[in-house]
Design a protein that fits this description.
alpha+beta, two-stranded antiparallel ribbon, about 10% strand, five-stranded mixed beta sheet, Arc Repressor Mutant, subunit A, single chain, about 350 residues, elongated, about 55% helix
Length: about 350
């Protein structure tokens, strides 16, 4: 689902810089995309699919300038600078086939807002880029060609002869034939514009030939690191509401010496998540939540859980949840559950609101 898809903010910073270099004011980019300066500057941050799509629409408005200054053989170097684990994995695979398959498997480290399908026959392998975003990006040049350039460099790394067999078709087009020819000349392979599909096709002749510099032990170490990064991305894709509730539960289950109150708790959560308060509140609002309601909901859930642990007194539970007194906890619980904590504990937890 698109609301769980994200892109590394490194990509966003690059596209942001491209737009600024071509006279698009920063304020205009922030306003149209909803991407804040904070989100751009944080290390290892992710940008939502919706924000990324809005940014890509702006980039498409400058499509004829996209690859004007492209320099061959720089794509992999850029990946190494930004995503060293991924680059190392792609350049230390056992065969060209594995290098390509690893890109498809682990490219979500860079971004995961689109789809690439692999097809093959007896002589060729074809990769088709499919836009899964707004229809307006269906004829985008930046996204499919950006992926194809990386794939072409992977192919070149393993076999220059195979690189020479690359053929690319793109649904997008430049306004002039000269620009299209210039792009093909820069890349070193044919780029056919205004096609029905975005595809990259190449010869399979050497695709399974063992890579002479392959280091199996190193590959296993790098692969584990890449899997760890993917697992981290999955956790980052968890809605903010769930992340905050998990943080609050951890706070109540492992209390530290501080005065519990909404002001202090939101400060602790913001520190834990490295996020300014206004950003946290804004993102919660986008998910239809606010911190006070979320705090009370989580406290209520934890109160019900703790009341089932009969070795804990009501005073203990009150203290764990940060209430000023047992009486304050009892009032809170009765107001939410329409029954006293003690009766709930004793099995009379019948909630009939109103």
């Amino acid at each position: 689902m698109n609301n769980r898809k994200t892109v590394s903010n490194i990509v966003s910073r690059s596209l942001f810089s491209f737009l600024q270099q071509h006279d698009v004011p920063a304020a205009s980019i922030h306003h149209r995309t909803g991407i804040s300066s904070y989100e751009l500057t944080q290390s290892d941050s992710r940008i939502s699919a919706a924000q990324h799509y809005r940014l890509m629409v702006m980039v498409e408005e400058k499509r004829e300038l996209l690859f004007t200054h492209y320099q061959p053989d720089f794509a992999m170097a850029d990946i190494f600078r930004s995503w060293g684990t991924l680059s190392s994995l792609l350049t230390n695979s056992s065969t060209l086939r594995q290098g390509v398959e690893n890109y498809l498997k682990y490219r979500s480290i860079i971004g995961q807002t689109d789809d690439i399908q692999l097809y093959e026959n007896d002589s060729q392998l074809m990769l088709e880029y499919r836009n899964t975003g707004p229809e307006i990006l269906g004829a985008s040049l930046a996204s499919p060609l950006g992926n194809f350039i990386i794939l072409a460099e992977i192919i070149s790394h393993y076999d220059r002869q195979t690189y020479a067999s690359i053929q690319v078709t793109l649904k997008g087009r430049y306004s002039s034939t000269r620009q299209s020819q210039h792009l093909s000349s820069l890349l070193g392979f044919s780029c056919k514009m205004n096609a029905a599909r975005n595809t990259l096709t190449f010869s399979k002749q050497h695709i399974d030939r063992p890579y002479e510099f392959y280091n199996r032990r190193l590959f296993e170490i790098i692969q584990k690191a890449a899997n760890d990064e993917i697992n981290t991305l999955i956790s980052l894709a968890t809605p903010l509401t769930a992340q905050i509730k998990n943080c609050l539960r951890a706070l109540y289950q492992n209390p530290i010496a501080h005065q519990h109150n909404p002001t202090n708790e939101i400060a602790l959560i913001c520190k834990k998540m490295s996020m300014p308060r206004w950003t946290l509140q804004r993102k919660l609002l986008h998910e239809g939540q606010n911190f006070t309601e979320l705090l009370q909901q989580t406290k209520m859930e934890e109160a019900c859980r703790l009341l089932q642990q009969r070795h804990l007194t009501l005073s203990d539970i009150s203290e764990l949840l940060g209430f000023s007194s047992q009486a304050a906890f009892s009032r809170f619980f009765r107001n939410k559950m329409n029954v006293s904590p003690l009766r709930y504990r004793n099995g009379f937890a019948v909630y009939e609101k109103g």
